[in-house]
Specification:
- The protein has 3 helices and 2 strands.
- The protein has a domain of about 30 residues.
- The N and C termini lie far apart (about 40 Å).
- With about 60 residues, the chain is of the alpha+beta class.
Length: about 60
Amino acid sequence: MTMFIGPDETGVLLEVGAVEWHGVAERELADAVHAAREKRLSWRAVGEAIGTSSEAARQRYSRSS
């Protein structure tokens, strides 16, 4: 599957494969979760925001010490 995202600065339509697009979305979600945790949001609030349990969110997105 191929997705097209708006034109670049030269006006050329950018083509992105679905796997590549999924990777981008996953990285953006992880960045958002880490930003929320830096602002002291609880794992419960994070889990609710992304549609999972607090424990699942913590296991997936907590940074290793």
